[in-house]
Amino acid sequence: MSMMLLAQACATGITNGLIYALVGLGMAVIFKGSRLINAMHGELAVVGAATAVYCVEIAMWPTWLAVTMGMLIAMVLSTLVDIGLVRRLFNRNAREESFLLLTVGLGFTFSAAVLYVFGREEHLLPAFGDEIYEVAGAIIREQTIWIVGIAAFILIGLKLFYKYTDFGLAMMAASIDPDGAATTGINVRLMRTATFALGGLMAAVAGLLVTPMIGVSYQMGPILTLKGFAAAVLGGLTNPLGALVGGITIGLLESLSIVYISSGLKDAVALSVLIVIMILVPDGILGRSGRKGG
Amino acid sequence: MLTVSNLTAGYGVPNILQGLDITVRPGEMVGLVGANGAGKTTLVRVLAGLLPARGGSITINGSDTTNVPAHARPKLGLAIVLENRNLFGELTVAENLRLAERAGANRPKKFDIPRIVEMFPAVGEKMAVRCDLLSGGQQQMVAIARALLLQPDVVIMDEPSTGLAPKVVKAILEVLRGLCSEGMSIVLIEQNIGIASSVTQRAYVLSTGRIVHHVADGGWPAFLHDPHLVSRYLGQH
Ligand SMILES: Nc1ncnc2c1ncn2[C@@H]1O[C@H](COP(=O)(O)OP(=O)(O)OP(=O)(O)O)[C@@H](O)[C@H]1O
Ligand SMILES: [Mg+2]
User: Fold this and answer.
1) Which residues does B10 contact at the CB level (< 8 Å), separation at least 6?
2) pLDDT (tens digit, 9 = 90+) per residue, A170-180?
């Protein structure tokens, strides 16, 4: 019985961890391309998921179309934030704290908008499939398989994108040294906008994957941002693989503390252990060599 | 061919550059000398498009470049090696060069990686190494290599000799001289008058944002032997 419980906790932990990893990956993408911490990332995930829910429940669209729409809206929103606000701050040589304040404020704005449109309830999306599997005594839903598959796809895709495409390389170059990039023919502003578009898309994917399991609600953003950010920082912030390792670590810590300590304390336990890990390995779990990423 | 006329620019209220006129013809290596704070780097940033011109004009190969954005200038034949080299430190040498190759892809091809490696063997040996792990001299060579892969007609270099061993400086200058004989225009910004006079044909002397003297072709010996001029404009003897 307790082995089964452990197996179930691990399965749940890994599933949730992958979601945190996806949120963290999106934040890492934005950090990599703009050196900004995007504190509204969780809210972008919520907006993407809420849009899809709206399209399914109210507009009666087929799920695939609703999901596409969710990704599109989050992407467009993130892009507009860059063009309309971030770019202006950059032009005025704003410092890091201004950008942080901007994205924190926008996060609140977006969740207020979702509250206004949807109310306080949680909304579920239809799962991508209904099969249920049993592995080592743990119940695994088909949605979990989808999450694992899509997370793996995105992780590998990002790695290839940054390493082998000129566009991905230019995106990194533009954030590493904007002056050096501009004199090398790279349109720095355009690269930053592309970064925000990609980050918005990734936020929406995370939100859309989790919504069939726990339901989306207006106040879900900050905790997603926090855990995604923790996952990314734990992994070294610029390394996609690091976010994966970090996310799964957090997910497992959480679900194991539900089993062995108390469900009310799961966030406290998970985040405290994180703090300890950060003190012990300040460059992230994968160490300094893991920091480059790409 | 680079033409700068009556160029003004600055950061705050008073202009730093107070109306500069500079012409560099194909195949020329022209010096720009001046003491610390004379405005050399400010001029480079305006030429690069990183700092807007407030007045006057910049023309490259006959087309007005004054208001062209920085990233579009390499397409017109301009390459800049900035004072701080500005390599992408977290990327490898090969990746730094690849980005430049891509930006220069639509221009007549004069340089490719094999030629760069022939010119700077040290660059060839470090292709897979992150740029922030290179020595100062190696970084300077990568920065020059990156500029050349833009396939430029005009190259502007902001104090490439700073912090480098004399041997390395000599090697780099040798390469630059070779490029000029192929018709490239080079503007060499230098504080070290010894280096400037040994390698450039003529030079502009910049002091507090103005061209205060022009060392004409063949005029270096006379300039160097006039201690009054040298100490007045360059603060050195
Ligand atoms: N970002 C800036 N903001 C305000 N003033 C600046 C800035 N950069 C340079 N200046 C001022 O412009 C003037 C010219 O500086 P510049 O860097 O062009 O000199 P330089 O000739 O390149 O000097 P050096 O030989 O030391 O590199 C200086 O008085 C400097 O204080
Ligand atoms: Mg300077």
Assistant:
1) B16, B17, B42, B54
2) 999 999 999 99
Evaluate whether residue B126 is within a structural domain. no
Q: What is the interface pTM, i.e. ipTM, of the complex?
A: 0.93
**Residue that has been written with the tokens 């539900």 in this structure:** A258
pLDDT number for residue A290: 47
Q: Are B79 and B156 in contact (CB under 8 A)?
A: yes
Q: Give the model's pLDDT for residue A293.
A: 44
For residue A140 the two structure tokens come to: 């695994």
Range name among A224-238, B52-66, B203-217 with the lowest pLDDT average: A224-238
Domain count, chain A: 1
Output the ligand 1 site: residues, CB below 6 A: B 11-12, 16, 34, 36-42, 191
pLDDT band at B83 (very low <50, low <70, confident <90, very high): very high
Q: What is the CATH number of the domain that holds B197?
A: 3.40.50.300
Which parts of chain B fold into alpha helices (H)?
40-48, 93-103, 113-119, 121-125, 136-148, 166-181, 193-199, 220-224, 227-234
Total Cβ atoms within 10 A of residue A3: 10
Total number of domains constituting chain B: 1
Q: Which of A175, A183, A193, A238 to mutate to test the interface with B (most CBs of B within 10 A)?
A: A183
Global pTM? 0.88
- For residue A288, the model assigns a pLDDT of 56
A177–B50: do the CB atoms touch at under 8 Å?
A: no
CATH code: domain of residue A60: 1.10.3470
Residue with tokens 């995105």: A154
Query: In this complex, do B80 and A166 lie within 8 Å of one another by their Cβ atoms?
Result: no
Residue B138 lies in a domain: no
The answer as to whether B139 is a domain residue is no
Please give the pLDDT value at position A291.
45
Q: Does the residue B120 lie in any domain?
A: no
Q: What angle do CA A166, A171, A173 make, to 5 degrees?
A: 90
